[in-house]
Amino acid sequence: MWKDHLALTIGRDQQGLTFHRHNAAWNVVVFGSKRWILYDPARMGSDKSRWKRMTRDVNRPIQLTTPDWIRKLYNKDDRKYEIRNFGHDCVQRPGELLFVPKGWGHMVINIGDTVAVVSERGLDAMES
Q: What is the rounded distance in angstroms from the CA atom of residue 31 to the CA atom of residue 26?
């Protein structure tokens, strides 16, 4: 339902979303900060097993929370190299807008209590 409207999000420290993809969206932080890790789908290609290797612990099929993913998987294997060279790892602060293009894989975690405004409304029409 929030895709058709603006949504106000309020979350505590270290609350966030694990890796996912969706239509183009934007996010503006009002209070607090957010850490984002993003992957360009062109870099991942059509190899779904590569996406799984980068975003999950393939040896343990349990879905990790965002803080656990950063603590346990970020520095392992080729993830850190991929993110630093072909992805984005950034911190969004109050008043900053972050645009996530359609299909980009991303995760987000709050740094401190955070308030933001988000929307996907009408953005896909802009990507023609």
A: 16
Contact 56, 8 (CB under 8 A): no
Distance between CA atoms of 30 and 9, rounded to whole angstroms? 10
| Number of Cβ atoms within 10 Å of the Cβ of 92 | 20
Would you mind telling me the total number of residues written for the chain in this entry? 128
Identify residue 47 by its one-letter amino acid code.
D
Tokens linked to 30: 């009002």
**Residue 14 and residue 35: Cα distance in Å, rounded?**
10
| Distance separating alpha carbons of residues 76 and 81, to the nearest angstrom | 9
More confident residue, 39 or 112: 112
Tell me the per-residue pLDDT of 22-66, one tens digit each, with 9 for 90 and over. 888 999 999 999 999 998 878 766 666 666 767 777 677 677 788
